[in-house]
Design brief:
The chain is α/β, with parallel strands linked by helices and 330 residues long. The protein is built from 7 helices and 20 strands. The protein is globular, with a radius of gyration of 20 Å.
Length: 330
């Protein structure tokens, strides 16, 4: 019987291997879980996980509890046994955030590359993406429409730095709204390189220290304190409420969705900058070319639309919807 991948309500599952790929719910018992990175929507209280050292440490900072951890170095193949057969897992850099990984799963029936969240563009805080060839490619397609094309990073950084310098020159505190893990470290490295003093929210500072202990060159910065914000660029989570006594501020949200001109109105900020840790439409196409799979399965974002684009190009491609369950041979 061929090896199958299924999309269930709990997420992507390889039933013959008892292996899950970033499931939405915690998995226990004899099942193993590949955790691609430590963003909150990709982790859970699993019993046994396969992940990188950095993701393991970041995950421990976010979810307490005991679990069996298989911490793999990038490029290291680890062999596992399921009830029915043996298989190998190799983690390679995904380029999404620090420690993020794609998972190459190899079994007798074939190979599968699961991207998780990824980007091919070279960032400042994530290891450069290194996809592998595989028979089946399971890829995230957050920005899966042709209109989703990010401007050059140099232009985006110039805009962000200019925004901050203008605010500081006018005696106003620039506040950049970004995820505590991933985008905050990216901003810290970029702003420090531009000679700006940075103040991180407590959560971002904590996670940055962990990244530093795992090998990321984290620049000097301060932990957020209202009384010391003058002359600093403040990096704050998108979901956190700014203190009322912070004084005059100018806010900007840092997100790939800033491609939409209405983003700053939607986020209620003064500006929005399209600095993303996801692949844009052109990178999605490039990844498919580099992996050269026989079959592509798309998940998240504009999965149906991107799968249709691939079929127009003569590829065997299909979207896995959240409500549908597919069994597809690798």
């Amino acid at each position: 019987m061929p090896l199958h991948i299924e999309m269930t309500r709990d997420g992507l599952h390889l039933p013959r291997l008892a292996l899950w790929l970033d499931p939405r719910r915690s998995r226990r018992g004899d099942e193993r879980v590949v955790v691609s990175h430590a963003h909150s929507d990709h982790i859970g209280s699993h019993g046994e996980v396969i992940l990188t050292e950095a993701t393991a440490r970041l995950m421990r900072a976010r979810i307490a509890g005991k679990r069996t951890e298989h911490r793999l170095k990038f490029g290291e193949a680890a062999e596992f046994r399921a009830v029915n057969e043996r298989y190998r897992v190799t983690l390679v850099p995904a380029g999404h955030i620090f420690g993020s990984a794609m998972a190459l799963v190899e079994a007798d029936a074939g190979s599968l590359l699961y991207t998780g969240d990824f980007k091919l563009r070279r960032g400042l805080s994530a290891e450069p993406c290194e996809p592998r060839r595989a028979d089946t490619l399971v890829m995230e397609t957050t920005f899966g429409l042709p209109k989703h094309r990010f401007p050059p990073a140099e232009q985006v950084w110039a805009d962000i730095v200019g925004f901050c310098r203008t605010a500081l020159a006018e005696g106003v505190t620039p506040v950049l709204l970004a995820y505590s893990l991933g985008k905050s470290q990216e901003l810290l490295l970029g702003l420090a390189a531009a000679g700006l003093s940075v103040m991180l929210h407590t959560d971002a500072a904590k996670l940055s220290r962990i990244c530093g202990r795992c090998g990321l060159a984290v620049p000097e910065h301060e932990k957020f304190a209202v009384e010391s914000v003058q002359g600093k660029v403040v990096v704050f989570p998108t979901t956190a409420k700014l203190p009322a006594n912070l004084g005059p501020t100018r806010t900007a949200v840092i997100t790939g969705w800033a491609l939409d001109a209405s983003a700053r109105f939607r986020y209620r900020t003064d500006a929005a900058f399209p600095l993303s840790d996801h692949a844009d439409f052109c990178e999605l196409l490039e990844l498919v070319e580099r992996v050269a799979p026989k079959r592509v399965l798309t998940v998240h974002g504009f999965a149906r639309e991107f799968a249709a684009t691939l079929r127009e190009r003569g590829m065997d491609a299909r979207a896995i919807g959240q409500e549908e369950q597919l069994g597809l041979p690798i």
